[in-house]
Amino acid sequence: MPGKIPDAQALADVAAYIGTLCFPLDSGKYEGADAAKQVAEGKQLYNNKCAMCHQENGAGRKDALYPVLAGQHYKYLLRQMTDVRDGKRVDVPVEMFDAIKTYDNAQLVAIAAYQASLKTPQLLMCRTPTDKTKM
Question: For residue 82, which of 59, 100, 60 has the smallest C-alpha distance?
Answer without folding.
Answer: 100
